[in-house]
Amino acid sequence: MSESRFPPARLAWFVWGLGALLYLIGFYQRVAPAVITDRLMTEFAIGAAALGNLSAFYFYSYVAMQIPTGVIADRWGPRRLLTLGAGIAALGTLLFALAPNLWWASAGRLLIGGSVAVAFVSMLKLASHWFTPRQFTLASGMALFVGIVGGVFAGVPLRLLVEAFGWRPVMAVTAAVTALLCAAIWLRVRDDPAEAGYASHYSGTHGETAHGSIWRGLQEVMSYRNSWLLMITPGGVAGAVMTFAGLWGVPWLMQAYGLNAREAAAITSAQLVAWALGGPLLGTWSERIGRRKPLYVATSILALLGWSIVIYIPGLPMPMLIGLLMLLGFVSGSIIIGFAYAKESVPLRLTGTASGVTNMGTMMGVMILQPAVGWMLDRNWGGEAANGVRLYDAAAWQAGFTLVFAWVAASLICIALTRETYCKQT
């Protein structure tokens, strides 16, 4: 077959889409514990601190994989990396589904987090080879949307399935689906269109690898003040949303506002949808005004005010509460600005590492906040329980979420200290 023509759009999107499906599954796994908190607490006889730590095991390995993933993708290629990631994710999910105790469940979460961490970078690498530069921008924007679809499925649909069949069978089926995806990626994904007989959109040298020291590149990136400030910032801005929608929002809405699990899951899913909408819209707005800092500061102020109302004013009218949570999701989409801001704050050759550092900061926020909120809840627990699930009063929830508020406040301070790039590369 001639290499003079580019691959058809249908084939390019299919190849990219298989990688995107692993990202969707990864986001689903990230949020899934939120709607089965009661089942997990009963099954393993644990309190909030242990539950938060169980959920956070996903993020421990996910964060650790952020920096090396880019280098591994360059050396192995996305096909091998995605196949390995999907295979390990399937094993981790099966381990979680069959876990006889908390230790094995945590091990399963650890395997899942580290394996799906390869999806995002691999998606972008596939896009750089299979799409034109204009389509690459579209594919990058679609990535967050695909992830949110996974997060939404981990809301009401997952809760309905768990109520009908139990959480263990549902997770076992998830493992089987992930294993099928592993096989499909190996059979159908190719690193470059040239491997399928088409011309490539990639402008670099095929087979190039990153031979520089990861540690040296990381040190150089962190020598720029903006880099570490922009690493801390999303830990509060996005970490607050993922801590709430990804774990503690559903039980809080059930215990503080008397909602059932389905209603609570629907609200946290809506917040994730608002987050998906906020990212591209705020990013586009930043490009149009030609500045990063003002919009990032303004949205962080709104986030701080919004969380202060949600956390410290009990008994809000339900329409107001839902509206605030949707607003918080939307303004937290400003982390998209942060990724562009971080890339522009370092030399062009370091932009990949800068992106990894920023994403690592995002995940560090939820990695720390989920178990920390649980620890604070247990410290303030009054001893009440129902069907093996601990019940926390308003004061306990307020104490737990105060940690979220504190990190959002720190994020605002950090973003205020950054230097504007005016949307231009350093």
Could you walk me through the main structural features you see in this protein, from its secondary elements to its overall organization?
The chain has 426 residues and is mainly alpha-helical. The chain folds into 2 domains: 7-192, MFS general substrate transporter like domains (Growth Hormone, Chain: A, Up-down Bundle); 214-382 and 389-426, MFS general substrate transporter like domains (Growth Hormone, Chain: A, Up-down Bundle), CATH 1.20.1250.20. Helix content is 77%, strand content 1%. The protein is built from 17 helices and 2 strands. A two-stranded antiparallel sheet has the order 1-2. Strand 1 and strand 2 (389-390) form a beta hairpin. Helix 11 runs antiparallel to helix 15. The protein is globular. It starts with 8 loop residues before the first helix and ends in a 10-residue tail after the last helix. 52% of the residues are buried. The model is unreliable at 206-211 (pLDDT under 50).
Essential attributes:
Growth Hormone, Chain: A, 77% helix, two-stranded antiparallel ribbon, mainly alpha, 426 residues, globular
Give a quick precis of the structure.
With 426 residues, this protein is mostly helical. Helices cover 77% and strands 1% of the residues. Helix 11 (225-257) packs antiparallel against helix 12, helix 11 (225-257) runs antiparallel to helix 15 (335-344) and helix 15 crosses helix 16.
